[in-house]
Amino acid sequence: MKLAGRKVILGVTGSIAAYKACDVLRGLQKEGAEVRVVMTAAAQELVRPTVFRSLSGAPVLTGMFADAQGEDLKHITLTEWADLILVAPATANLIGKIAGGIADDLLSTVIMAADCPTLLAPGMNFRMWRNPVVEGNVRKLAALGYRFCGPVEGRLASGAVGVGRLADPEEIVASGVAMLTAAGPGRGVKVLITAGPTREFLDPVRFISNPSTGRMGYALAEAAAAAGAEVFLVSGPTELPPPVGVEVARVQTAEEMRTAVMARLADARVVIGVAAVSDFAPAETAKTKIPRADGAVTVTLRPTRDILSEVGRAKGDRVVVGFAAETGEGVDRAKAKLEAKGLDLVVLNDVTEPGSGFGVDTNRVTLIRRDGSVESLPQMLKTDLARRIWGEAVALLDASGSGDSA
Fold it and tell me: Is 54 exposed, middle or buried (0-12, 13-18, 19+ CB in 10 A)?
């Protein structure tokens, strides 16, 4: 019971996922925590306070002032009691209140008055999550030290699929445990991740690239950050918002990505190369737009520098994970890549298989490990796969004896 003797305020807001807070409450109790539930008015329209009162064995707090039960743990007193405030689900409204310093109900007032850690587990429609105002509020709070768990990609209450679904209760509880125990899967470890495509320019307006959207790499950055790692993400051109709590360097070409990676390699304990880096680039880039021609145009290509091989040569005691995008059976090629580049793990996927590879929310991969084992995983959401791969990386780090290096 990792949270024995610890006190947690569980905030519940008016997201349709409010019912999942019951599982979060049970998970915290299983870890030994004493939990007091604070509900907003909107949350009470979705789940009755009596449900949480029955589960917690304590009065549910809903208003700013003492109620008929004589509950005196209000406002300042409540914040002095708690070791952690965990809000699940956290709506865009509550996130905006905190970012704006607004305290107009019990939950927002408790958060404003607290000096204990606060963990927010967002749950909302995907259009709300990607709204620039919400994105800005999240970045502001992350910079102030608020921690986030999720949201994740999946089917939402509207039937749409996108990022906005509340993280699994088990993951939320694990994040709370990590915050209170200063121990988690890779907590404090410095991680370097590459994501997205690169662009190799023929002239100022034309380039060679690939269909990578960056989703897998961004999901891995989010999974590592949610586990408490310090993540530096080198991203090629994508339309994805920056992951919460992650430092991002945006690049375009393979050479720019290499420069960014090598500049941060010395600090990294784990390197995960997810980016679809161009293997070839034009031998020359025209300074002005190449005019249209009626006949054939010949372009001479040169190989780009292999970033992952360079990382492997400087590996030391780092854990290095690579991805291998193939078109067909590629286990033998992935094994050769693992050996040639000095990798600890290769994640292989066939990008031509339905529901796998570029531009989709799911992936089906095979894990090729240095010990020779090969494991094929079922198709799953990239967010779920990211947590699985991060767990593999942490296990490798622990096995190397350097898992406590930050």
Answer: exposed
Q: What's the distance, CA 292 to chain centroid?
A: 44
Within this chain, do residues 79 and 218 fall inside the same structural domain, yes or no? no
Q: Which residues contact 130 (CB under 8 A, 6 or more apart)?
A: 163, 241
* 165 shares its domain with 283: no
Both 177 and 246 in one domain: the answer is no
Mark whether 177 and 266 lie in a shared domain.
Answer: no
What is the 8-class DSSP label of residue 16? Answer: G
- Give the pLDDT confidence of 133-170 residue by residue, as tens digits: 998 888 888 878 788 888 877 777 667 777 788 888 98
Q: What is the mean pLDDT of residues 371-385?
A: 85
Residue 230's identity, in one-letter code, is: E
Angle subtended at Cα 196 by Cα 191 and Cα 198, rounded to the nearest 5 degrees = 115
Asked if residue 2 is part of any domain, the answer here is no
353 domain residue, yes or no: yes
- Same-domain pairing of 317 and 207: yes
Specify the pairing of strand 84-90 against strand 118-122. parallel
Nearest one of 61, 255, 89, 101 to 169, comparing CA atoms: 89
**Residue 310 is encoded by which pair of tokens?**
């360079």
Token pair recorded at residue 204: 């100022």
pLDDT band at 86 (very low <50, low <70, confident <90, very high): very high
- DSSP class of residue 17 equals G
Stretch 324-335: mean pLDDT: 84
Report pLDDT for 406. Answer: 41
Q: Is 46 contained in some domain?
A: yes
Q: Which residues contact 298 (CB under 8 A, 6 or more apart)?
A: none
In angstroms, rounded to a whole number, what is the distance separating the alpha carbons of residues 107 and 14? 12
Structural domain including 327 reads 190-399
CATH number of the domain within which 386 lies: 3.40.50.10300
> Is 210 marked active-site?
yes
Q: What are phi and psi of 229, to 5 degrees?
A: -75, 155
| Structural contact between residues 258 and 217, judged by C-beta atoms closer than 8 angstroms | no
pTM: 0.65
Question: Hey, what are 169's tokens?
Answer: 């209760």
Active-site hit among 93, 125, 137, 210: 210
Quote the mean pLDDT of the chain: 87
Last residue of a domain, one of 181, 199, 216: 181
Among residues 154, 181, 208, which one ends one of the domains? Answer: 181
| 80 and 26 within one domain | yes
| Cα–Cα dist 375/211, whole Å | 26
